[in-house]
Amino acid sequence: xxxxxxxxxxxxxxxxxxxxxxxxxxxxxxxxxxxxxxxxxxxxxxxxxxxxxxxxxxxxxxxxxxxxxxxxxxxxxxxxxxxxxxxxxxxxxxxxxxxxxxxxxxxxxxxxxxxxxxxxxxxxxxxxxxxxxxxxxxxxxxxxxxxxxxxxxxxxxxxxxxxxxxxxxxxxxxxxxxxxxxxxxxxxxxxxxxxxxxxxxxxxxxxxxxxxxxxxxxxxxxxxxxxxxxxx
Amino acid sequence: xxxxxxxxxxxxxxxxxxxxxxxxxxxxxxxxxxxxxxxxxxxxxxxxxxxxxxxxxxxxxxxxxxxxxxxxxxxxxxxxxxxxxxxxxxxxxxxxxxxxxxxxxxxxxxxxxxxxxxxxxxxxxxxxxxxxxxxxxxxxxxxxxxxxxxxxxxxxxxxxxxxxxxxxxxxxxxxxxxxxxxxxxxxxxxxxxxxxxxxxxxxxxxxxxxxxxxxxxxxxxxxxxxxxxxxxxxxxxxxxxxxxxxxxxxxxxxxxxxxxxxxxxxxxxxxxxxxxxxxxxxxxxxxxxxxxxxxxxxxxxxxxxxxxxxxxxxxxxxxxxxxxxxxxxxxxxxxxxxxxxxxxxxxxxxxxxxxxxxxxxxxxxxxxxxxxxxxxxxxxxxxxxxxxxxxxxxxxxxxxxxxxxxxxxxxxxxxxxxxxxxxxxxxxxxxxxxxxxxxxxxxxxxxxxxxxxxxxxxxxxxxxxxxxxxxxxxxxxxxxxxxxxxxxxxxxxxxxxxxxxxxxxxxxxxxxxxxxxxxxxxxxxx
Lengths: 232, 526
Fold this sequence. Notes:
The complex is a heterodimer. In chain A, 35% of the residues lie in helices and 26% in strands. Chain A is of the alpha/beta class. In chain A, helix 3 packs parallel to helix 5 (130-143). Chain A is globular, with a radius of gyration of 17 Å. Chain B has 3 domains: 1-51, no CATH class; 53-267, no CATH class; 309-328 and 353-403 and 437-525, no CATH class. The radius of gyration of chain B is 28 Å and the shape is globular. Chain A: It holds the Pfam family ABC_tran. Chain A: Residues 2-227 form the ABC transporter domain.
């Protein structure tokens, strides 16, 4: 479970996130929507422990600042940044050591094959395209077998096959009880994935729907109903 | 910890392997060894010539290093700016289950590799040049490196990783460091005016017992003196204080809670640093500072003409939005240079010299040749797809993309020439020709940059391009000087200048024509 309690973040005098609280239950996919500058990235970075903030973030009931919480938390940032001098394979090896997970050779190969990286294993970080970096970033996040997975604009830069594969992975993770939070502008891409939706504007959550509440209503209609026509 | 060791090890192995696979690395290694040998020989000669080859002079040199390094480290760590985190580290280290303190130590150790090399060099120099017994220098190498690293690691964790220090406390700490520096400077000034008004005051200051009593900085000096010169009551007491302080910091840093509050500052610094590095890679060095965005005003420009001319007018619009228009730090340097030449000429009565006509062009050629070129708007044109899409000839694109640079050269040339021309009593014609020489020299440099971009791209990196530019410029300057000498000897000075300009223009035109390949397709940059 991912719990955000009264999260507030200021950059100097500018209030970027204003007392935001929400919860994504176990085995559910939450999506965070909102126009540019709504505060989504600030929330994502706060959850990932990259920003100082007021309030609390709980990962499986543990504060996100604790190492125990980090062990259960996979993060795919919007802009992946690879180690220049590490190969794709070495990135995975590093993650495997940092998180202390036991992963078999076959599991690593399966993951690489799934994202069409098996022939890129020996490529260095600075030799990868943006799309390939994104795939490596996703593989690293999946390798740790997270209980909570957070993806910030994960489809950007991916080719159609990788997008399809990622959607499949997200559904499989949900089936396995993983809590997932996705921040995205691409409503079309998360149509069949979401369980709970949070819409943000000017640093606040202005609307929240569960799939059950929405019934058959289209995600775009819901979003534009809440935001009054602004594009996400 | 194992993951960080793995990360460091693999990074080093891959970097070395990659470097060794490039032929240019071997050239760099040879040049590097030659450079280090030259520096060390230079230091050796300097030390021997001045009879500085005794242990005390090594102590003075190390004391000076302490003065330079410790206050700046303290200030940087207190402001959470001393460590260079990369974006990849933000991505893969900060969200990983690795102790934030360990991450700090990892960064500190990485940046400290240079310190290890420096300590090693000092050890070797101590044994060979300053006549200090090997065992003493080995002791220095081990103890100085260990204790200084413990202290530095403690400072990094306590200052960078501290989550209790309020902004006000950090400000006070920074002021305290500045206060210590100010006290040291005042003390040196006091000694200068009361004891010895010459460079000889330095040993008096560095030997003074007061110096060793200054917390951290002075204690570190006492520690060095104890290891190299032997014990005195003062240096033993201050060394004890130094070691106790280092251990105390170590204990505090172990016990202190650090959950990663510094990540936010480190992440911002990593982003800013990345931006700076990208700009520097492209050669943009003027007006680039970490964390500061350039501000632009409002402006308008009327496009007169079409095709490649649009590049010129767009650049003009951008410059008009600049607070200082086309002027910058180089404008001031040019003015200072002009005034400097004028003062030098006045003091040395050079206005009567038969070679006075060649003083300003000589200085100009030297400056143009030695100074690395600052990247300007023309180089950015090569990154813009529209530069290639504009339906016009490549030579016109090169001309209009660099036209403003020629105008800047004209202004800079005037600033260098006019003050000097007044003192050197040059005729208006000679002054105008001198300005034109500067414009030609700068144009040569600029077009060699274009040509090196076109021919080398990323093959040999900035160093290779720089070498090609220097070689090309050297050849052009040599031919132009020969033309000038011939013209002066055969007709007169004005004709010599004219021959210089004419030959430069022809050669520069050829280089520009060659460089226009860079504007033919974007691929040439890859």
